[in-house]
Amino acid sequence: MSFMEPEVTERDRHWEVETKSGTWYVPGHVVEAPDWIASGGTIVEPWLSNFKDDLKDYIEPRWDQVQSLRVVVGYCGRMQAPGYLDSTEWIFERTKKGIRQQLDNLFGD
Known about the structure:
Blueprint: E1 5-8, E2 12-19, E3 22-26, E4 42-43, H1 52-55, E5 66-80, E6 91-93, H2 96-107
Antiparallel strand pairs: 1-5, 2-3, 2-5, 4-5, 5-6
């Protein structure tokens, strides 16, 4: 993917969305994770639906496929095509070095 460039967020609180078809990450600068949610704490029903309107547009499966949410602290990264809307899904690592290595492993030439 030589036409795409890495995009890495700052260290922040991000969303980890566990679905029946896999795990999705939504960066904290896209949808802010409230401070009252402890990092690593899992959110399930009945509170899960409180976050539906904020997160539903950033995950692939339908909202009824969501099983739980967690707030994780670290870095989100993806590959994007400058000047275009094309990008990969977000991935997560706890360290900046880790996210850069994972992007290179997944998408490097």
